[in-house]
Each structure stands twice: as C-alpha cells, then as structure tokens.
C-alpha cells in the first residue's frame, strides 16, 4: 500500500484491475497528488502484496477484493473516499460502496464491465467460449507467467520513476493466483449490483476497447441512477496509460464538482 | 506505402552483383565476400526474414508488415495495412493478455521480450508465437510507433504443453501420495484408538478374575500381587480368598492354559465353580474334583480346556490355623516359618484339572503358627528367564530366596516377590499371580 500526495487533502483511492498492480496508475499519480491524498494498493495476491494472506476461497469471488478495499478503509479510518476502480475493480468499488456507503463520497468507474459474457440481449463483448479460451490461455502462457522466469534488472537512467526495480516482475502473478483472479473477474455478473449505487458516479469508457466496449459503458451508465458517462478519446483498455492526461482531467473534473 | 520483396526499390542495389566467372576457383575468402554481397538487399532482408515483422501505430493500427508474417497468417497486405489492429490478429485470450499485461508492460518499459501469444490466421487456425516489441521514439523522446518481431513458437508451445502436463502429473502424484499418507495416519490413529479401547475392556475383564480387594481374615494376614505380561491379552491366572463361616476361610490360586478371551472364559468358569463347590463341601480334594468334572464336561468334544490350581481351607486351631490344601498339577506352595526356615509343601501326583474324566488330586496339611507365612504362586515366577542363555529362575532359587526372606509377613513377602519379578525385566514373559497368607509374629500388635 502506498499513501502519497497532500496529507490533508480529500482521499482518492486508486484500485488496479486484473493482471497488474498499483503501477498502472503511475502516470496519473503526480497530477492527483497535488490536490488529493492518494491511496494506492495491490490486492492480496497481486504485485508486492503478502501472498501468504491469499486464499482461493476468499479471492474466488469479487467480494473478497471488495473486502480488501473495506479493510484498507477501516485500517486507515478513511471516510468520504473517492474511489477510482479500473476494469474489474470498478465492480469491486460498486460492491464495497453497497456494503458501507458511508465510507464513499464518489465512484469513478474506469472502463467497467459488470458482465463480460453475452447474456440474452445483453452484449458483454465475449461469448462463454471466448472466456473459456482466455482461461485456457492463462495456462498455456504458464512459462510466461511463471515467477521462476529470471527477471531482468533495468537501469533507471531514462525512467527514474521506476528506480532499480525488477522489470517484468511488474504484472507478473503466480499462475494459480492469476487463474483464480481471472475466473472471479471474467465469470462474474455484477449487473444487479449497479442499481444499489447511491453515491455520485462517473463512468469512463474509451472510444475503442476490446475488453469493455462502449455499449457496456452505456449499460453501466444507464443502470446506475444519476451517473455521468464520459467517453475518453483513447484506445485500449488502459486509458490511464494510453491517455493519462485526458483520464486525469476527467477524474479531477468530476471530483472537483460539488 | 509498402513494397514487396519481389519489387525492391532501385536504390537498394549498390551496383551489379559480381559474376561467378570473375573469381578464381577454390578461393574461399572471396566466396564469403561474394555471398555477403548477395545479402545487400535491405528490403528483402526485412521481407523474407525468418521471423515476422510488424510495425504498429500507438493506437494499435498496423502500419507495416513483412511478407513472412503475411505468409504465416494467409493475409494480403491490402487486408492488413491501415485496416487491422495488432489485437485483431490475436485470439480472445491473447487480446486480454495483450491489454492487461503486454501493453502496460510495453508502455512502462519501452520494450517487452518473449511473450507467448497465439495469432489467428485468415483461415481461423492458431499459430503459437513469441512476441517481442519495442517502442520507437522520436528525437524529442515521444513514442512514435511500436516495432514487433514474431517468432514461430509451435515447437516451444509443444514443449511447454509437455512441461505443463508433466507438472500436472507430478502434482497429481504428490496429491495422491499426500492422500494415501493421510489415510495411513488415519488408519494408524484408528488402530491406536481400537487398541486403547480393547485394552480398557481387557483391563476390566482381567480385574473381574481376581477379587477387587483382598479380604483380611481375623487373625490372618493376606496379600496378593498380579503381574500382567501384556496389556493386549487377558491372562489366565486367578486367585481368591473368601469366608465359609465358623471363622473358616477358603483360598485358591491357579493358571488356566492359554491366553485371551477363551482362557478368560475358562478362568471365570473356574473361579465361580470353585466358590460354589466350596460352599457345598469345602474339602479341597472334593472341590478340585468338582471343578475337574465341570471343566471336563464343559469342553468335551470341543477345544479341551484345563487348568492347574491349588485349593485350600484355613481352619482356626490352638496354634493358629490349620491349612489343608489340594493341588491339581500346580507348583507346590512354599511355607516360610517363623524360625527363618522355608520348605515346599509337597502335593505329588495331582493331575491337571479338566483333562481326565476322573482325576486324582493329592492333599497336604500343615499348621500356620504366628510368624509363619504360606505362599502360592503361578509358574510365571519360576519359569521366568534370568540369563542370556534362557536359564529359568527355577524351584531351587525360589526356595533359597524364601529361606533368605523368612521370617516374613504376608505383606513383606509379596512386596519382596514383586521386586524380584520386576528384576526379571523382559525375562518375565507370562502372567504371574502371587498370594501369601500368614499369621502375625507373636508379640506384634
């Protein structure tokens, strides 16, 4: 967990999605830190978290990840949190805010998807077979994911923000943990939870995103009462990396509103 | 705009290639130079490289691709350039991996090496590949495009699949071993519980074959000891001491052949037969004859069961008590006198009880005076092995021991014999019962 920024500023919590860790936010943190107290963390099982605290039971459903968010809020005694969740973490935030709404002031759902698999009229963007193939590919990429693969030490001359860290260790997860996280993510269905959101919510989607297409963003916007929808002029599923300025601007703009 | 390898730009050639006839035969150095000159076509090096090349704009649109990769995928250049994105070439799993891992890594590090993905060919077949990408930055440091090499990884994928299969097999084997180890532990614990329960039952049964507490007759001292050789087996030794009225007492001590539940059943039958017979007629020979008849009848035609036993009566006399006893095949009692001497009470000729329909038993009589003690025992004592060569303790040693011990009260005698039994250690491999009856020495309270 990392706490940075303005110590007495309003709290912004940044939650990473499936696959990576809090480094996902590094291009947005400097701009946010000048106004907010920024809380970054890795879910248990991801990034630099204590893997011994991980269990397949707790982290087999999104509730376990929502508990991580609430645990941090309780431990730091956070209130009026502006929660920014990327990808699956958007739904984690929805679940956490439904459980303890008094903790949260606002939600920013960055490229959210409440359900990845198509279901009747609902278009999540993936067929059940697609998701099966994804889960299999996690296995077939076993050597690529394997923690035993020798990491490369990268110098920090041209990217001082990284320091002397192990490259490729970023985004690397234990294959078994990744498999459980992937199942929790891509087999989940949080559509019913959207209506329970009572805090002001901003939905951010991208012009082109193969994982969370625009119609999914529109669905989330329609399902959350009083939410706002902004479509970022960005491609891919990680606008905080591909279009950090626009993403930051949208987030700050929304949080600044009374 | 892109060119094909078959249509090289004119500037690619730096001059006409040398002709073979210009070289002197066997000149290997000029062979190498000649070959190198053939490789001066940069465009062809790109197009026909043994790996796929791909350049994409930052939004993923494909800007340039080499002939090798087009050939692998079965696309034409017109299909791909400016129309398809890199992720369009990927399977669904690959797309997600690309979005969640590959692209973030590439943005952070500027390059990514050796990522395993699958490409989708035009005809829908899958091509396992290894991808390496590097961001090309302009002179001002801003990223311009992404260059990617694609290596055919079918062999590697097969190898990985094999590794994965072996790993799963190993894990499966480990799980099975763990399960069988658990089952083994469980079975051992169950066996331990069963054994404890059985030992509990056996201990209760064993206690039922001897009096719970030994009575202390008026004017007499009585003491007994029972050594259990095995907690897993009920022994066949027994003894008892009980009044029959008029200040008279009966006692017996014996040893049923064999061990275990069958022996215990015979012991129980023996004990109650002796007590019942004694009430009817306490004459020792009569009592043993009754027991003989009962045991013999009970087991006729079946598994023969028999025992050895000494049965006796104690009748108050002027000096103390008159002891009258009879033996059926049992080791003789030891009489320890107040004057420090000791002797066996011979009962020769007595037969094992229960073997023959009409057995003869021999009787003996002695007087117990103050300071005298009579000791009955089973052969566990005299048959104990005391030497490395298996030498048994024996009758003589016992008599010597009793002589050294005399005079001794019943308590002291049993205490001393208990210590003796314990000194045998593992040499004492049979159940052993000891019963001592004596009269307190004159002048003692």
Structure, described:
The complex is a heterodimer of chains A (258) and B (445). With 258 residues, chain A is α/β, with parallel strands linked by helices. Chain A has a domain at 2-114 and 190-256: Rossmann fold (3-Layer(aba) Sandwich), CATH 3.40.50.1820. Chain A has 9 helices and 9 strands. Chain A has helices spanning 29-33, 62-75, 88-99, 128-140, 142-145, 175-186, 214-223, 239-242, 244-256, and strands spanning 2-5, 11-15, 37-41, 81-86, 104-110, 152-153, 166-167, 201-208, 228-235. In chain A, the strands form 2 sheets. A 7-stranded mixed beta sheet of chain A has the order 1-3-2-4-5-8-9, sandwiched between helices. In chain A, helix 2 (62-75) packs across helix 3 (88-99). Chain A is globular, with a radius of gyration of 17 Å. In chain B, strand 7 and strand 8 form a beta hairpin. Helices cover 36% and strands 25% of the residues of chain B. The relative contact order of chain B is 0.08. Chain B has 3 domains: 10-158, PAS domain (Beta-Lactamase, 2-Layer Sandwich); 164-207; 210-438, 4-Layer Sandwich (Phosphatase 2c, domain 1). The termini of chain B are far apart. Chain B has a 5-stranded antiparallel beta sheet with strand order 2-1-5-4-3, sandwiched between helices. Chain B has a 5-stranded antiparallel beta sheet with strand order 6-15-14-11-12, with helices on one face. In chain B, helix 7 (260-280) packs across helix 8 (284-298). Chain B has helices at 28-38, 42-47, 67-73, 77-80, 92-109, 154-207, 260-280, 284-298, 394-405, 410-423; strands spanning 52-57, 62-65, 111-120, 126-137, 143-152, 221-227, 237-245, 248-256, 307-316, 321-328, 333-336, 342-345, 362-368, 373-377, 432-438. Chain A binds chain B through residues 17-20, 23-24, 26, 87, 126, 130-131, 133-144, 154, 159, 162, 167-168, 170-171, 186, 208, 210-211, 235-238, 241-242, and chain B through 58-60, 87, 91-97, 99-101, 103-105, 107-110, 114-118, 128, 157, 160-161, 163-164.
